[in-house]
Hints:
By secondary structure, the chain is mainly α.
Amino acid sequence: MQLPALKVALLRRIRWLALSKWLAVLVLPALVVATRPWARMFPLMMVCAVFLGLVLFVALRAWETSLRRQFIRESTFPRFLGAKLRAQFPQLQPRDVELVLHGLRQFFMAHLRSQRQFVAMPSVVVDAAWHEFILHTRAYEAWCNAAFGKLLHHTPAEVLGRDPKRNDGLRRTWFWACKEESIDPRKPTRLPLLFALDKKFAIPGGFSYLPDCSDINRQAGSDSYCGSSFGGGDGGGASGDADGFGGCDASSDGGDGGGDGGGCGGGGD
């Protein structure tokens, strides 16, 4: 099945870079061996070849990752996803569906930017879009190969709980979703879109994220979680700014198309 609005040139560059970064590590040392330099020069030339190969590997991998980010941001999702979402959630208007799919892009970006580590899904409505996409296996596999280089397996939407691995995955999602919208994950002034959608569209069984930590303390019997609950995790080791984030203070209208509130996370309604 062909991907909709596929950017063939972009995909070719991604595939070429995915291969050439490994060739760079192997070809330069092989050239040194093939040229058969003087015995006394061989160790030095081999060290230089390996070093240059590693430099090229890092540079080509960075270029490849940049193109994969571009693909996630700009590629078109299959049209059937919108119809499937509106059938499952009749309250969604066409513009609402676009916001949900933007939230799905934000989740995919969190996975890529965390160096393809496990990330947990914090939204019921975005999870529904993801699940519908997966059901069309060939299109989803082709999309994942372009975006990540391998298949991203589905995990259900969830909030912080007792499983440390899943908690770390949710913290990575929070961290990179905030970074995608230039929000400080330690002191957020609003929610990233991915964490705001369930509450915004009143999704049955969805996860609610509150704008002020003090609101949680004032609500007797509340099962909500504060944004500071995301502290102590990381963004996947890709940034020194990723450790121990959390906290929340003010609220404002969400940016990037629909977040409503600040940086406090909540449990299901």
